[in-house]
Design brief:
Rossmann fold; globular; alpha/beta; about 25% strand; single chain
């Protein structure tokens, strides 16, 4: 299967996956936390020959990963990553799962213990459409935050500015940051105009 062809096809509808692939070294060892049905890992395996494992709590997602040949470990991220040795992965990925974590501080620190670097992506609560819905008296619902207030798994929504300050206060170096809206990169006023934030992190 042609790797470049896979990347070009996926870029059309998952620009965030293409960016993550671009941040990885060919053949690296990756750990994908909250991997869902394993879609991201499957893409990284086919396009970058990543040697990876997923971590997933949900029974149906875990079974789907197994059926699709994705190496997956069933466990609750809230219990931490104590089962993984320090620096045992080149990269640890948390793709659009940060906002659903109760202990955000712990999981980011654990990612940087287990991996040489971490990739974190999350919906930007500061996006102007979210602000507009709040002004109208409603909790935001969007492509990146698709749940109603009463059935959402999200517990710690944050803005890009919030996460920048989090990294600064926890001695975390931001190697790269990209902000997207509908797959397009946002450089001007990203905390207002960007809907999805993507960070590449390492310890200082």
């Amino acid at each position: 299967m042609n790797s470049a062809h896979n990347l070009d096809n996926l870029t059309e509808f998952r620009q965030d996956y293409a960016i993550i692939a671009n941040w990885l070294k060919f053949g690296c060892k990756a750990l994908d936390l909250g991997c869902g049905d394993g879609e991201l890992l499957r893409f990284l395996q086919s396009s970058m020959e990543v040697r990876g494992y997923g971590v997933e709590k949900d029974d149906s997602n875990w079974l789907t990963c197994m059926q699709n040949g994705v190496n997956v470990i069933q466990m609750d991220l809230e219990d931490g990553l104590s089962g993984f040795e320090a620096q045992s992965f080149d990269v640890v990925i948390l793709s659009q799962t940060l906002q659903a974590m109760h202990n955000t501080e712990r999981i980011v620190q654990e990612m940087l213990r287990v991996g040489r670097e971490a990739i974190v992506t999350f919906p930007n609560f500061g996006y102007w459409r979210n602000r507009f819905q709040l002004i109208g008296g409603r909790m935001p619902v969007s492509k990146d935050i698709p749940y109603q207030w009463y059935d959402t798994p999200n517990v710690h929504l944050c803005t890009i500015t919030d996460f920048d300050k989090f990294c600064e206060s926890h001695n975390i170096r931001v190697k790269e940051r990209l902000v997207l809206t509908y797959g397009e990169r946002i450089n001007f006023m990203p905390n207002l105009l960007g809907s999805l934030a993507m960070y590449r992190l390492e310890n200082k």
